[in-house]
Amino acid sequence: MATEVHNLQELRRSASLATKVFIQRDYSDGTICQFQTKFPPELDSRIERQLFEETVKTLNSFYAEAEKIGGSSYLEGCLACATAYFIFLCMETHYEKVLKKISRYIQEQNEKVFAPRGLLLTDPVERGMRVIEIAIYEDRCSSGSSSSGSSGSGSSAGGGGAGAR
Amino acid sequence: MPAESGKRFKPSKYVPVSAAAIFLVGATTLFFAFTCPGLSLSVSPAVPIYNAIVFLFVLANFSMATFMDPGIFPRAEEDEDKEDDFRAPLYKTVEIKGIQVRMKWCATCRFYRPPRCSHCSVCDNCVEEFDHHCPWVNNCIGRRNYRYFFLFLLSLTAHIMGVFGFGLLYVLYHMEELSGVRTAVTYLGRPKKEKTIVIRPPFLRPEVSDGQITVKIMDNGIQGELRRSKSKGSLEITESQSADAEPPPPPKPDLSRYTGLRTHLNLATNEDSSLLGKDSPPTPTMYKYRPGYSSSSTTAAMPHSSSAKLSRGDSLKEPTSIAESSRHPSYRSEPSLEPESFRSPTFGKSFHFDPLSSGSRSSSLKSAQGTGFELGQLQSIRSEGTTSTSYKSLANQTRNGSLSYDSLLTPSDSPDFESVQAGPEPDPPLGYTSPFLSARLAQQREAERHPHLVPTGPAHREPSPVRYDNLSRHIVASLQEREKLLRQSPPLPGREEEPGLGDSGIQSTPGSGHAPRTSSSSDDSKRSPLGKTPLGRPAVPRFGKPDGLRGRGLGSPEPGPTAPYLGRSMSYSSQKAPPGVSEMEEVALQPLLTPKDDVQLKTAYSKSNGQPKSIGSASPGPGQPPLSSPTRGGVKKVSGVGGTTYEISV
């Protein structure tokens, strides 16, 4: 942890965006918002597959939950319609709540999992739910001359994440 | 934040949405302003509430559809398409549920468009689940705002249907308003109002009260004629014409006149009765047709013939006319005024003209006596009938300045006139005199009489320049005389004025209760029988009574005073008879009274017997124009200073 943090800090100080990995949408189940869980090759040396897949799957579930139509969403819609959508000034929809949750989750994941590994996840909302962008930062100091792709991706992911925020 | 491509402000882009918004809000506002109030009352108050809710829904959805992000894809960063940009194939195939789908590369957005994603050229954005770009909301309809857009459409349809339906309902409820424009006034095409009022006799007539006095200010003869011609129109014109057409006939013998008078009287009575029987106001036209009135009564300018006729007819008609006038002063005032104005002087003149009144008093007396019976009979008949005619004749004559003077000079002479008419007048040469002449003569007579009268009844004629005062006094005097007559029975002996006058006045004016019949009072004896028996009056001798009183209406000095007497007799109720003359006046006025006053009249007859001249004495002072015209129960003429004639209808 400390080394990871240290590494992360070092990465921040001297991190250079190496490359970005884009995880595309998975349309095998339709047009629902899903991301491919295929492990990109660039992350092969940076993160365990299990962690990655878990993160992606969690995100998928969150999106599915957001778009889920239930009683609460129905009531929300009716209430909004009845109040001429003035309720939106006071209250946020379920979808927005889930989106917020997703954002918090990604932030958490980045801090816990990805950042120590020199990766940075970007919220897909920023990309229009088209792709998950993972920035791979290169550890110049530590790694020295690391693969540009991984470092670039890591750095780009970090840069992208920083830019997004 | 990806920098957006330079977007210029294009006002043309906002025209449709502005038009849509304005039309929507404007039409709805008009609906709420004009049709909802009526509908809320006629149909239900829930109508505007429902429409308001629907309209609010429409507005909300419209706003959401306009301002909600449809799902615009942000631009892809450079890093994303770094690999694909140069050698990016146009399409990338993706398998969706086993189906191969091509995703197109969007050069602007730099990514492969997801399925159902399209680039909007208007918005220059790729919109996910792009439906279309709606100009009316100035927004793409995509995934995110599809719901609101659809609801907007639904609510707008409901709103349109509601507004149209309720507007149609409103129009159906107010179909009648469609036929006529509210703001435009048209004469044609108006709905005809059905007549709901049914006019059926008997009609209400205004009641004549003693207190009713209508003052008519008339000019002197000259101007009055003009006015009359103007106001009365054809009638006056005809009158004047007739007046002009008939030159004053030469003086005729008394007998002829007497006979003519008889015939005239008969005719007059017949006509009067017939005319009076109509119970219609003696309009000038009617006067025209009356032998006695037509010429003389209608036109003041009528010269001798007319005046003669008037005198003849007036004597008989006066009481009736007076009665009528007294009964219906309102509408007879005008027409009756003229004839009355005529009459009043004519009475005096009749004295002159009267065939009954021969050139000399004696002769006139005889003739008067002879005719007095007839006249008396006729007069009595007439008096029972109407008296307005006589009044009218007097009134007509009074139109003339001189005539008015006569009437004014001898307000109390009206009865005298009447009585004189019944009886012969002592001035044969004046018998045919025109109203003017008679008036002048009357004035002269009055002037002459005044010295006589003054001692007898100074109170009768007060030579005060103020006519109004005299008039009022006369009126009051006449009223008082009436009362006195009713109370008293014995004729006053002092009345010298012209017994003939008084009698004639009495006879001719049965309607008047208080005729200042000084003349009649002159011959008490005559009067008493006259008063008792209106038919047979020995008052004839009274008519021919001499003395200064006589000369009043006969062209001699006496006729002057007699004229005023007549004039007074004419105005029974309205005239205030002098004390001495009161009885006479009352008697003289009696014939002028309405039928109900016949009893009074009879009593007055008896009373006035022998009470003459007080009327004559009461006549205005010598040289003074008649101050107050005798009231004939309908119209009292008062001459003002300068020859102005005031006719007061009572």
From TrEMBL, chain A:
Task: Tell me the domain of life.
Answer: Eukaryota
Under InterPro entries, the record lists: Golgin_A_7/ERF4, Ras_palmitoyltransferase
Q: Does the keyword Membrane apply?
A: yes
Q: Which UniProt keywords apply?
A: Membrane
Q: Which GO terms describe its biological process?
A: protein targeting to membrane
Q: Where is the composition biased (Gly residues)?
A: 151-165
Start and end residues of each stretch annotated as Disordered:
141-165
In what residue span(s) does the Golgin subfamily A member 7/ERF4 domain sit? 21-133
Could you give one GO CC term from the UniProt record?
Golgi membrane
Where does it localize? Golgi apparatus membrane
Question: Which Pfam family, an example, fits this chain?
Answer: Erf4
* Topology of this chain in the membrane: Lipid-anchor
PANTHER family (alphabetical): GOLGI AUTOANTIGEN, GOLGIN SUBFAMILY A, 7, GOLGIN SUBFAMILY A MEMBER 7B
Instruction: Spell out the family assignment given in the record's similarity comment.
Output: Belongs to the ERF4 family.
Identify this protein by name: Golgin A7 family member B
| Gene name for this UniProt entry | GOLGA7B
UniProtKB/TrEMBL annotation, chain B:
Compositionally skewed regions (Low complexity) per UniProt: 357-367
Chain intervals for the UniProt region annotation (Disordered): 228-368, 402-650
**Membrane topology qualifier:** Multi-pass membrane protein
Query: InterPro entries from the entry?
Result: Palmitoyltrfase_DHHC (IPR001594)
Query: Which residue range or ranges hold the Palmitoyltransferase DHHC domain?
Result: 102-176
What's the main place this protein lives?
membrane
Cellular component (GO) terms are:
plasma membrane
Q: Which domain of life is it from?
A: Eukaryota
Q: Where are the transmembrane segments?
A: 14-35, 47-67, 148-173
Subcellular location(s) of the protein: Cell membrane
Composition-biased stretches, type Polar residues, lie in 293-309, 402-413, 603-612
| Statement: the UniProt record of this protein carries the keyword S-adenosyl-L-methionine | no
Q: Name one GO molecular function term.
A: protein-cysteine S-palmitoyltransferase activity
Task: State the reactions this protein catalyses.
Answer: L-cysteinyl-[protein] + hexadecanoyl-CoA = S-hexadecanoyl-L-cysteinyl-[protein] + CoA
As recorded in UniProt, its EC number(s) are 2.3.1.225
**Coiled-coil residue windows:** none
Which keywords does this chain's UniProt record carry? Acyltransferase, Cell membrane, Lipoprotein, Membrane, Methylation, Palmitate, Phosphoprotein, Transferase, Transmembrane, Transmembrane helix
Q: What is known of its domains?
A: The DHHC domain is required for palmitoyltransferase activity.
Q: Per the similarity annotation, which family is this?
A: Belongs to the DHHC palmitoyltransferase family. ERF2/ZDHHC9 subfamily.
The name under which this protein is listed is Palmitoyltransferase
